[in-house]
Amino acid sequence: MAVPLKQKRGGYNNQKPQQIKCYQVNVQHSKAATANLMQMIATDKIGMALNQEPYQYQGKLTGITKGYRTFACGEGKRRAAIVIQDNTIDALLITQQSDKDAVLLEVNNEIFLCSQHVLRLQ
Asked: What is the pTM of this model?
């Protein structure tokens, strides 16, 4: 399968934030937990959220506030996503290293962030 070498970057306006507030949360495919996360992002001014087991309806991530950028890969039940609220954050999805269990972003040309769901072996 061909993977594009370049992707359009979104939300970059040549102003890098001094500090990025970031949450990491497993919402366990819950609609209520997703709504709570969106409320916390808005009230606490969180720049990005690394989300495991995001809420989905009919194969689509649902419950994310309009205007927020959402990064997820794969088909079917995705177990990892990253939601960005802060428009000053420049993010590029690294598709070659992302799938339904892990999402890797290059952020502001400086750091890499990964949201990954790890299955427990019994």
From this structure: 0.82
